[in-house]
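Re: beginner question about structure tokens

> Can someone show what the tokenized structure looks like for a real chain? I only ever see the sequence side.

Sure, here's an example I had lying around. Input first:
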Amino acid sequence: MPHEQIPTWSRQSRTAGSLTPLRGSKYPLIDAHLHVVNFTQETPGGFALVDAMDRSNIRKAVIFGLPVTKMWALSEREAPDYYLANDSPCYYYGYTDVIVAEMVRALPADQQARLYPLICGFNPVDRFALRHIERLYAQYPEVWSGIGEILLRHDDLTAFTYGETARANHPALWPVYQFAAEHDLPVLLHQNVTSVTKNDHPAYLHELEEAVAEFPRTRFIFAHCGMSRRVNVPFYYQMVDRLLEQYPNLVVDYSWIIYDVVICPEGVPSPDWLALTEKYSERICLGSDLVTKFERLGPELQRYDVFLDLLSEKARADVCWRTAERVYGGTKGRLTQPPVIQTPAWPVEAHQ
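And the corresponding structure tokens:
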């Protein structure tokens, strides 16, 4: 869209390739978990995203908005920028998907092809949820590559969000999962395995398993392997190993705090998680899980290198890009070689 017509929610940066590198992983990556709006539904924009990807060795990205927005309550003097910024509640915000779709469509075609956008802006306990997905899928048929990240059980965010508690086995999600199966759309779920007060056993894991078992034709991605702040259980890798063995339609992503807490604590790769990753590399992908903050993409993904260095060449390629491409790339062509960074199609001087 012309520069003067850029809406206020899209703080676009259109400087292409002229800044210093953001480091990034030594390996070509697909970032399989990236929020491109924040909790007040603002975004730096698609051009800023592509710039940061180019400078961080990120070839493609799975992107989505946030299905909830943080309320600025009258009792709060300062505007919040994160769901934990203050005690104000959050509420579901369907326009997030329009923000993402229009952000993608504003990019040149070759840059659009590097992004796999997902639909997330619906209330997962509302039996009308499918209507939102159907409308967005019809309105932007060329854009979407999946559904998610659906925020279900999620530490403090669950308590902050208006309404009934969201869970993976809520009946309102049954038609959503069916729609995903019929349209071959992967579904990315955030479902904590337990609560912050029950870290001795996975109290909520059965909710995920019920959904995955009930819809064997739906492809599910288990975000962060079910971990969140202050959410942990004993023998975590055995639990993930069993899930991947038992449910062939399930994929996991290594993102957010799962990596630093149990996969590579204090920067030392766990032998158990290395073995699990070798065993199931075709079912594992990597993500930054940044909420905008595109300037942190390089450092966020570079930290995986100490773990990736110890994998076999095949497992490393699977985790870095092949799994994500297989799972999310169906609507835009699946690759058989690592994706390459394309030179931006817009002239630098035209977008200063």
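Each token stands for a local structural state, so reading them left to right follows the chain. Residues 145 and 255 are 19 Å apart (CA to CA).
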